[in-house]
Structure formats: C-alpha cells, structure tokens
Amino acid sequence: MQQPDRDEILKFISDLGFVAGGVAPAIATVYESEYLSWLAEGQHGQMNYLERHIDVRMDPRVLLPGAKSIICVADRHAQHSRLKQSDEPLESPQGRRGKVARYAQGKDYHKIIKRRLFRLVDWLKENFVEAEFKVCVDTAPLLEREHAQRAGLGSVGKNTLLLRPGEGSYLLLGAVVTTLEIEPTKFEPEDPCGSCTRCIDACPTEAIKPWSVDASRCISYLTIEHRSSIEESFYAPMGDWIFGCDVCQEVCPHNQPTRRSSHLASYADYEPVNRDFDLLEVLGWDALDRQKAFKSSSMKRARLDMMRRNAVILAGNEANAQPALVDRVTVIANDSKEDVLVREAARNTIERCGW
Ligand code: SF4
Ligand code: SF4
Description:
Blueprint: H1 6-15, E1 20-25, H2 32-40, H3 54-58, H4 60-63, E2 69-76, H5 83-86, E3 91-92, E4 95-100, H6 109-127, E5 133-136, H7 144-150, E6 155-156, E7 162-163, E8 171-178, H8 198-202, E9 208-209, E10 212-213, H9 219-224, E11 241-243, H10 247-250, E12 276-278, H11 279-283, H12 287-293, H13 304-315, H14 323-334, H15 340-353
Parallel strand pairs: 4-11
Antiparallel strand pairs: 1-2, 2-8, 3-4, 4-12, 5-8, 6-7, 9-10
Helix pairs in contact: 13-15, 14-15
One iron/sulfur cluster binds near residues 157, 159, 197 and 253.
C-alpha cells in the first residue's frame, strides 16, 4: 500500500486550526501497572467506566485491530492574554457566582474536535480506501495524553496534564487511531517541571502527588463526576468552583502570560459562553433551565441535582453570605420534596456555617 505523507497530514491538521499535531506509533501503554494500582486504590472514585475495557485502554490495537499509528491533535481553549481577567473575584450586582473550569466555558469540545477529525479522515480515505480509522475525543477508552506526548505534542507535568513548555496546558486533545503506517513525529521526552511543586502546593484538596492525581479528591471529579453526597471535608476547599477546577493550571509557570504566549490564539469556537453562574439562580433551576444553560456545552455530565448540590456548598463558602442565599439554602434544607442530594448538602451547610 502507498505510504501516507506525514508532513502533508500535519499541514492538513494545522489548516484545520489545531495548535499542534503529531503521529505516534500505535503501541501499548507503558503505564499499565500504575493504572491498575490507581484503580485498585479507588482513586477513580465513582468513575466505574474506567474499570471497563481495560484491555482496550491499555492497547490501541485492541480498540482498532491492525492499528499502526495514532494521529494526535490539540486545540488551545484559553487565550493567555485573557487569563488574568478570568481570575477576577466573581461578585456581581446580582450576587455570588460559581466558577466553571476554562475547558468547559465554550461550546462542546467533543463536537468541535470530532467535526474536524472526520474531515481529516475523509481526506485520508480519498487516497487510502482500505485503511480503517477510529476517531477518539475523550469518550473512547484511549490514553490520549500518553499517546499525545509520544507524538511530540508536549510533555506531561506533575499535575498529570499535557503541557507545551512556554505555551501552557490549556489544551484539549483528540486522536485518530488508524491502520495506516505513518512515520512517527519526533518524540523527545523531557521533564517540564524540574524542582517546581506549585501545583502540588496549591491544590486545595491535596490530590496531587508528582505525576499522579487522586481523582476521588479532585474538585473536578467531585463537582462533575461524583453522583452522590460530597464529603464535608471537601466543602471549604471547593472555594467557588461550581464545575471543575483550574487551580493546578492557574499556578503553573507554563500558563503565566508572557509576551510570546499572550499572542497565541485559542480556537474561536471556544469563546467563553458559561464563565460562571449566579448561585441563587442555579438553586432555582429546573430541568429546563439547566438544559438551556448547558445548550451546546460539554457541561451535560453534571446533573441538575449535582449542580444545585454544588451551588449549596459554594453558598456556605462565602464569609458573609447574602441573606437571600441563606434563606434559599434554609428553605431547601427543610423541604421534604427537595432532591435528597441537595437537601443533605443544605443541612450540612447550615450546620457548618451556623446559619
Ligand atoms: S483540578 Fe483542582 S482539585 Fe483537581 S488536582 Fe487540580 S488543583 Fe487539585
Ligand atoms: S506547576 Fe510546576 S510542577 Fe506543576 S505541572 Fe506546572 S511546572 Fe510542573
């Protein structure tokens, strides 16, 4: 079979607006024992899907039999010149607001990345009709970060995120596993962290050990994936994060705006739509309100009761909570028709805050 030209593929990826592209060989992970220990220790919390299809997750050749290569891409979703602005305290005339992690502020990245990866696949199929492709954006059992690092897209930092030295970690990843044999891009592993421990020191829940995150303690997991009550010891560390958490990225030296990084543009479709939410409003949401707020967004993993649970907890993190918020939380705590998850958070908050 005729060989695909790697440089032409990389040019196509660049023309699609990805900030980085590369090719890795489709080989098994080198972190199988670490992954299995992480699962055995329960650090994945309630994300039971991570226990399934382990053979597939460990080797992309099980995901796509005959796979030879993985084409990896990355989008930048946040612009460095804007980072300071989005770190401002979230007080509005209407009241206290809960922050959304940057990756989820814009339109749904799954769709934005997949749409363009399917264009890449269609283009490749024109010349390689017999080749097979599997497009993966976050939802397939593929260790995208490890393959992206091997494809030369960046290096994994102590906070376990892929970062591009000097350009930061506000990246979203996608991949195409294929039976095509494509020459891999240069892979020069490097430690982007050195003696830095800023993310470890700043993590509000002490979830980070070098190159390992205990997801069951991570605010991102707790606010988005944890489907039952949140342990009270995590209430105060949640600060004002209603969906996700960016602390370990905000403190990273690679994410600080520099003259160079301030000029790096993000992909236009990630323009923030949901930067934050008014807590009182979220507490008053019904299913339709949530649906409207999350339209075109990747935030749909958080159910209505989870968002309201998070809002209740954040209300208690205000030194001088607005009377309207205190009243609302009190009504929730005493309403027998309320969702159990939200009511329990309200009762705990009232006790914790002495309201
Ligand atoms: S996202 Fe937040 S809670 Fe999770 S590891 Fe990073 S700093 Fe810690
Ligand atoms: S904050 Fe420091 S230790 Fe953490 S990922 Fe960034 S460079 Fe590495």
